[in-house]
Amino acid sequence: MPIKETIPMEQQQGWLWDQYQTTVPMSTYLLAFVISDFGYLKATTKGDVLFKTWAKESVLYQATYAHQVGPAILDHFAVYFNQSYPLPKLDQIAVAGFPAGAMENWGLVTYGEPVLLYDSAVSTPINKFYVVAFVAHELAHQWFGNLVTPRWWTDIWLNEGFASYIEFIGMQSVEPSWKVMELFLDLKLQSVMHNDDVQSSHPVRIEVNHPNEITQIFDRITYSKGSTIIRMMNHFLTEAVFRHGLSTYLDAFKYNNAEQDDLWRHLTEAAHEACTLPANLTVKTIMDTWTLQMGYPVIKVERSADGTSAAVSQGGGGGQAVSSLHLTSLSRWPRQERFLLVKDDNSDDTHDYKWWVPLTYTGQDQPDFSQTQTKVYLSMAFNGKSGIGKQDSSRVFTAVAGNDAGRTLAWSYLRTNWKRIYDYFGGKAKPGLISTATKDFNTEQHLKEVMAFKEERGAELSAASRTIDQAIEKTKSNMAWMKRNHNTITAWLQNEGYTVHLKSA
Ligand SMILES: [Zn+2]
């Protein structure tokens, strides 16, 4: 906290007494003091936080880059978490001979000189990458770790996994041209698979009873696998749901501590509210299989001989084959096999490994590689064994189709499975599904697709034939509206200083 006042000490010539403002409720491990004659760079963030970057006077110029990205990342996180940074100031300081990479003390982040200082004349691009990665990581901790602390060391992965994922969000915000979310796959996901493919790996969440065990868990499983499964969660829940769940979680537990089940509960609530998870499925059910057991499953995708369909299976054969390119699923498969680099036939590991696997796919007809939300809900919605009653199927479909990320997916599913859905409802068409999936269509491609659908499905459309005509007309009128207004609105927004781009549905 900032100094409240400095007063000379009575009867002690040359001594001063500093009094600081009262801290917010916090963990003791986050308290730090620094006494130095360092120089600093100063800025005020948009959130009105006094931000200083400190280093030895002789190398202060090398702190410029860290000081440029730090305040911007702090502002970005406050928006991302929908929770402002709670202290009036933040200092970051480069310390020579610092034993760890950096430490996220609340409001006074300490770094080793090599990870905070950057000199464009002599440093390499990878040095620059690490400066922003470290700054973003430690600033992410100001929320994940500092504002909400794990209840016990067992849940330390919530700190480190989150900071390791969120650091990429922070980097992306200040260095968008680096495309760091793509680097994530190489640096975190693929690399940690090598740590997790041995018998002696350990679950992300692990019992901790002795101080020695604390040191041991600060490893790649905690950091990299933790961040990787958080990324998976972001993808299957969708970005909006993920952020909303994080925000209510941070708000509910701020200045306090929590464990992973608390986070699962908040994310589940957000997902059920937005209908990105079926009502009978929780985040805990899925994520416990990734945090409480080690390893990861073997998944096989086999293309059919004619190349028009694929089958997905897990483990030692006998998996579930699925028809056409519409692979399912987020389901718990009967036989699963943990991937091991070398199998030890004498292993005494009798654990029955099973994972919930969110799966999505794309094909030539819909080459949308940014769509990562799992397709499970659709597959489950029109299947009598899914646990979702017939009366609720349309609601599940509507929830997916009503969501920006889900719309393309819903339409693609509908086009391919119309006959199956038609039969499922006893030979009755469901016009509402068409109008929901197509309601925001506004491009030439959309129009072509809806017209092709009408052509292909002629006889099976029955009661939906009028709806398909309406969808065609509506698409045409949306296209006309876009043609008339798109450029004007874009120009107006740009004039007003927004970089927002209008997006076709
Ligand atoms: Zn950390």
TrEMBL record:
Species of the source: Portunus trituberculatus
Q: Does the keyword Ribosomal protein apply?
A: no
Cofactor: binding details:
Binds 1 zinc ion per subunit.
Q: Which cofactor does it need?
A: Zn(2+)
List UniProt keywords, sorted A-Z.
Aminopeptidase, Glycoprotein, Hydrolase, Membrane, Metal-binding, Metalloprotease, Protease, Transmembrane, Transmembrane helix, Zinc
Binding of Zn(2+) occurs at H137, H141, E160
One Pfam family recorded for the sequence: Peptidase_M1
Tell me if Lipoprotein is a UniProt keyword of this record: no
Where do the catalytic residues lie?
A: E138
Q: How does it sit in the membrane?
A: Lipid-anchor; GPI-anchor; Single-pass membrane protein
Q: What is this protein called?
A: Aminopeptidase N
The record ties this protein, via InterPro entries, to: Aminopeptidase_N-like_N_sf, ERAP1-like_C_dom, M1_APN-typ, Peptidase_M1, Peptidase_M1_aminopeptidases, Peptidase_M1_dom, Peptidase_M4/M1_CTD_sf
Q: Which GO terms describe its biological process?
A: peptide catabolic process; proteolysis
Q: Where in the cell is it found?
A: Cell membrane; Membrane
Q: Which GO terms fall under molecular function for this chain's record? A: metalloaminopeptidase activity; peptide binding; zinc ion binding
